[in-house]
Amino acid sequence: MTRSTNRSKKSRVNPPNVPDEERKGDETPDVPKSKLPPELWRNIVEEVALSIPDAKARNHALYYLLLTSRDLHSEARRLLYRDITFVHGTPVAGKISDALHAGAAKYVRSMRAANLVGEVGRRGRSAKTHFSHLPLNSMRALRSLDLSASWIQNPSELVELIRCSIPCDSLVAFHVLLSFDDDILPFLLQQKNIQFLSLYRFDDEPTSPPQPRQLLPNLKRFKLHDLNRVTNNFQGFMKDRPITVFHSGSFFRLPDFWSTFARQLQALDLSSSQVNFQGLKEFLEVIATTAINLRLFACAQISTFQEVAPATIPAVFCVLNKLHHLEAFTVSFTSFTIGELDITNIPNVVSDFGTPTQVKSILLTQRTVLGHGGETVLEFCYTPESGWTTAQKYDLHREDWFETWLRKLDMAYC
């Protein structure tokens, strides 16, 4: 007698963005299992995932693999829910929530949540589309939580939710647009393994942080969006932790705090701040004479409001010769018109016109406001054999370039 096979009708419809409706819990397709080793199936699924850079297309491919056979189901499901984006209050959020409650929560390693506005908790039929409905306490593999896509209207309620739900010492990376204050401190105290932290700013009111051994003793990478205020909290925080990578959204008054932690930094990202041409020389001098151990540097955006960009701009960068460990840096220029400015001279200035250098890559971005406008992105790469070579980059953003170099230098910490 021919054996019948039950196939789900939902396999014939278009799948949702992050689907899991085709099975309840860990139910798998009712088809015979292969005799191939599990390691081979895992390699097949991972190779498919790695070959598709677009997240939406990758999720759809994993979805169809999940429906193919019993052998592929568990591995495809594991990768499908390894990195998720949860947009609070949307229909897709409800489908993700259902899947996580049905058993997929154990696969989640990183989660990005957006649109966290209004009340954190909510009752009724729409509750499952809310962040508070997620089984956070079941996400035992969760290592990265990103809440920085939203301005939090009820910070104390949200922080209390994650403090009570996320297992202690589980996170390696945590990002949120909240201040460092007495509300968030209890949560940070129970996450001692965080290596990469992003906060909005330090609170105006003094906070008495515990001893370094208790608060974020493993923090190596720190991002602060707003550094326009002078606080003792910031100085002590930077000084007492092993931070080697620092991102700042503003360089305003940063020299006031600089001496407490400049020497410990190996990577510095100031690309979100701006400095005009008149202050450029002093700005670079402060960096080059204090952060002497930098290996990677994203300079502030250089702007000039003169009608024509000064042709002397490249010469100012000779001060970076003092950074003997520097391997890569990037800078962006904005002006009304280019005039006689030639940014391609900067690599020669930095390497002292042909002298062997540690610098291997320089990413330069030039924007013009008048005329046709537009943007030019050039990457200069150096090898002892060929010297400096140039390539124009059409789709390379400074943030992506910086992140790539952090990984090359083993300093991404995420």
Mean pLDDT: 81
Name the helix and strand elements from N-terminus to C-terminus, one letter apiece.
HHHEHEEHEEHEEEHEHEEHEHEHEEEH
Ends apart, CA distance between termini? 55 Å
Helix content: 25-40%
What is the CA-atom radius of gyration, in angstroms?
Answer: 25 Å
Structural class: alpha/beta
Q: What count of domains describes the coordinates?
A: 2
The low-confidence parts are 1-16, 18-26
Q: Number of helical runs?
A: 12
Total number of beta strands: 16
Largest sheet: 14 strands, mixed
Shape annotation? globular
User: What is the beta-strand fraction?
Assistant: 15-25%
Summary, kept brief:
It comes from Sistotremastrum niveocremeum HHB9708. By secondary structure, the protein is an alpha/beta fold. The chain is built from twelve helices and 16 strands.
Walk me through the topology.
Blueprint: H1 38-50, H2 55-68, H3 70-80, E1 83-87, H4 91-101, E2 110-114, E3 144-147, H5 155-165, E4 173-176, E5 179-180, H6 185-189, E6 196-199, E7 201-202, E8 221-224, H7 232-239, E9 245-248, H8 255-258, E10 267-269, E11 274-276, H9 280-290, E12 296-303, H10 313-316, E13 328-335, H11 346-350, E14 361-368, E15 374-383, E16 387-392, H12 398-408
Parallel strand pairs: 1-2, 2-3, 3-4, 4-6, 5-7, 6-8, 8-9, 9-10, 10-12, 11-12, 12-13, 13-14
Antiparallel strand pairs: 14-15, 15-16
Task: Describe the structure in your own words.
The chain is an alpha/beta fold and 414 residues long. The chain has two domains: 82-236, Leucine-rich repeat, LRR (right-handed beta-alpha superhelix); 244-413. 26% of the residues lie in helices and 19% in strands. It is built from twelve helices and 16 strands. It has helices spanning 38-50, 55-68, 70-80, 91-101, 155-165, 185-189, 232-239, 255-258, 280-290, 313-316, 346-350, 398-408, and strands spanning 83-87, 110-114, 144-147, 173-176, 179-180, 196-199, 201-202, 221-224, 245-248, 267-269, 274-276, 296-303, 328-335, 361-368, 374-383, 387-392. Strands 1, 2, 3, 4, 6, 8, 9, 10, 11, 12, 13, 14, 15 and 16 form a 14-stranded mixed β-sheet that branches. Strands 5-7 form a two-stranded parallel sheet. Helix 10 links the parallel strand 12 (296-303) and strand 13 (328-335). Helix 1 (38-50) crosses helix 3 and helix 2 (55-68) packs antiparallel against helix 3 (70-80). It is globular, with a radius of gyration of 25 Å.
